[in-house]
Amino acid sequence: MTWPFKTKGLPAGSRAGGVCAIWLVLANAASFAQAETLVFAAASLRDVLQDVAQLSDTKVTVSATGSGTIARQVAQGAPADVIVLAHDQWMDWLETEGVVDPSHRHIVARNTLVVIGPAKSAALQAPNDMLDRLGTDRLAMGQRDAVPAGLYAKAWLQRVELWDKTKNQLAETDNVRGALAFVARGEAPLGIVYATDAQADINVSVVYDIPPQDHPPITYPGAALTPAGAEFLTLLKSEPAQLVFEQHGFKSP
């Protein structure tokens, strides 16, 4: 596949022609002066990628939001140079849409899940202890069927046989940082987020470390969409960048 990739867009009935046209105009303008690398990244990567960007010789702008939102934007023609998502599902979909070349796709980091509570909350000894802590309150997590952190959280709750007991008490958010904020503000007594998100907010504490073998592997696939994006993806896999990931609590690929 040659640069730049051609996008097929969203399935019929869901394409946003006007939005796509605007994105394409921006993309064409950017191609004349590639003085900046635009990174679309999962919300949980915002902080670490901003730090990694300092290692680049080129100005890097990180736009972070939910992985599903990124996938749809890029499929509509958003001018990202590189994307880094929090789940293979959306990256697989972009491959089927002809947006992502599998040869330009690589895992850049890994993560784990934790249960969090407001700062200084007492630890939980076992998953079932969540029920007493929740009472009639809500459990914060990403959307169960769309947000990667929510998909992973649902899989874990099913594994420990708590899904049916909690699914009607969920406070579901558009990205994992939204779930983190719910707990940090005291609006939910518990939440399920990535370990790295819990590390990044002093207003929450980890009350239960979820064993990695109890949920699907959490990986961050990255894909280059332009030559500038390929350079940044190479940087992400470098030893200096991986040290930054480690400092933020991520695991190496």
From TrEMBL:
<dbReference type="InterPro" id="IPR050682">
    <property type="entry name" value="ModA/WtpA"/>
</dbReference>
<dbReference type="GO" id="GO:0030288">
    <property type="term" value="C:outer membrane-bounded periplasmic space"/>
</dbReference>
<dbReference type="GO" id="GO:0015689">
    <property type="term" value="P:molybdate ion transport"/>
</dbReference>
<dbReference type="InterPro" id="IPR005950">
    <property type="entry name" value="ModA"/>
</dbReference>
<keyword id="KW-0479">Metal-binding</keyword>
<dbReference type="GO" id="GO:0030973">
    <property type="term" value="F:molybdate ion binding"/>
</dbReference>
<comment type="similarity">
    <text>Belongs to the bacterial solute-binding protein ModA family.</text>
</comment>
<feature type="binding site">
    <location>
        <position position="176"/>
    </location>
    <ligand>
        <name>molybdate</name>
    </ligand>
</feature>
<feature type="signal peptide">
    <location>
        <begin position="1"/>
        <end position="35"/>
    </location>
</feature>
<feature type="binding site">
    <location>
        <position position="149"/>
    </location>
    <ligand>
        <name>molybdate</name>
    </ligand>
</feature>
<feature type="binding site">
    <location>
        <position position="194"/>
    </location>
    <ligand>
        <name>molybdate</name>
    </ligand>
</feature>
<protein>
    <submittedName>
        <fullName>Molybdate-binding periplasmic protein</fullName>
    </submittedName>
</protein>
<keyword id="KW-0732">Signal</keyword>
<comment type="subunit">
    <text>The complex is composed of two ATP-binding proteins (ModC), two transmembrane proteins (ModB) and a solute-binding protein (ModA).</text>
</comment>
<keyword id="KW-0500">Molybdenum</keyword>
<dbReference type="GO" id="GO:0046872">
    <property type="term" value="F:metal ion binding"/>
</dbReference>
<dbReference type="Pfam" id="PF13531">
    <property type="entry name" value="SBP_bac_11"/>
</dbReference>
<dbReference type="GO" id="GO:1901359">
    <property type="term" value="F:tungstate binding"/>
</dbReference>
<feature type="binding site">
    <location>
        <position position="67"/>
    </location>
    <ligand>
        <name>molybdate</name>
    </ligand>
</feature>
<feature type="binding site">
    <location>
        <position position="44"/>
    </location>
    <ligand>
        <name>molybdate</name>
    </ligand>
</feature>
